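The protein record passed on for reference:
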Amino acid sequence: MTGLQRAPHTLQPPSMPLPDGLSAVLDALPAGVAWLHELRVQYCNATFAGMLGHAVQDLLGLSSRAWHADDTLWAGVERRCAAALLAGQVFEEALTLQRQDGSALRCHARVRPLHAGRPEAGTVWLLTEASQPTDRSDALQQQVQALQEQVAQYAENAARARRQADIDELTNLPNRMLLARDAAQAIAQAQAGHKPLAVLYLDLDRFKYVNDSLGHRVGDQLLVALAQRLRSAVRERDLVARVGGDEFMLVLPDTDVHGAAHVADKLMVRTAPVYDIAQRELSITSSIGIAIYPQDGEDFDMLTQRADAAVHQAKRTGGSVYRFFTPAMQNEAVRALAMENALRRALERQQFSLAFQPMVDLRSGQVTGVEALLRWRHPELGNVSPAEFIPLAEACGLIGTLGEWALRNAAFQLKAWRDRGLPALTMAVNLSAMQLQQSELPALIDSVLHEAGLTPRDLELELTEGAAMQDPQRAIAVLQALHQRGVRVSIDDFGTGHSSLSYLKRLQADKLKIDQSFVRDIGVDADDRAIVAAIIHMASSLGLQTIAEGVETEAQLRFLRQQGCDEAQGYLFSRPLSAAQLEAFVRDLQQP
């Protein structure tokens, strides 16, 4: 080992100032004073640096090897020093050290532990020129000892500050900043050894509902328990960090695609068993995105970005899976970022509109209501599918504003039709899962209906079965408040979720909407016919209406009528229309 040895990132010089006056006192001493931790300089006064021909800032973080002529001399001094301190003695010796310019420095060194009896906590060094009288050196040593307690307190404070800056307080895992520094070092080693490295991005599925339903204290305890399982599932040299609320990252040196898949499988298994938290049994699943060095990126930022793109893909497929990064994901991520930026300005730029699809009574053949469908046309992105921008609006916290805009404009459009003499129609508006979690939703609906001059029976709110089941208790409370007001509620996409009949009854819905995936093949698939018939008969026995979506053929329509379905919508009747087109469509049906 030759030359100056820089400290690794975990031993950065302390950033907090010395206690008032202590720095000035130490700098005024005619002897060099320094303290070392793990053989590296954490502090030195100006005299110490000057004796060695360095500036103070240049010494901070350096190994004590820097002021020895060769490795053998350095190792011998450190060995004798450690032996003396472990025996409870002061290490004292005449040394020949090496200045920065290579010249020899003959000096007298005295070394004591920073904390009595604890040499592992660090050491205080006192250097005096060999030409100074011994009694003067003794006096300086006594003076330094008197300051040692203050130096020790400073060292503890500095260590605590470093720990707080680098460690996640809740889980005691490294945080994102420390992980980035550790990962950079691991990537450099992988590059030097021509070895692979894997970055895993782990995001819990639906963790928000734990916090919302059970409180943040329970959520925090769950994160602590999960962190322990993650740490125990990997090797000692693997890096595990908490990088966000419910997000964790792992950096696995010397790990290729097959090794990363094995670890991801292991993490899925290890983290899946029930957690016993606050006398509750909680289950949680996770999604994992994986990027591999060097093919997916050659630095930590790029690998993180691509593992993040992969975890988003995993969550879009329903979660509880892992996905490797692919170039297609990068294109999706670029589009998603552009779309998010555009989405934040789309309302103010009036890029949203509503389309309306008629809902037809299967007995009378008349239009009894319309479903308001949100549309977004961007000048560069074109017509963006709701399946793409609605989840994005939920993810970036815009769904509340967007949902209120749709609700308000649909209500005022219905009032405008009424004022022009159109028959009484019901306006159906979709609710997202996140809107259903907002306690102020009933009050918002009251306000919109009052402003538009409508009654609660004029409005029908549609929510998917999956949205209702994400937090059934919250959904029941909100829907009961709406039911008491007289607002109609329709369960959309029925049959694709996991609700039970007991929940269905407690949701107090007025209508079940049969998903088009069942309607599509009822002309040729006996199983789909049986499912649709069962839904219609069950709804009838519960006093609920049924409406089938995606009706496109006369054969589908005949079967639905035979089974007693109440309403239908689909391209057989009409595509979604503009407000003016819808008005013309309804008036045409009124013609004799």
User: Anything to note?
Assistant: The longest strand covers residues 104-115. The chain has a mean pLDDT of 85. The two ends are 99 Å apart (CA to CA).
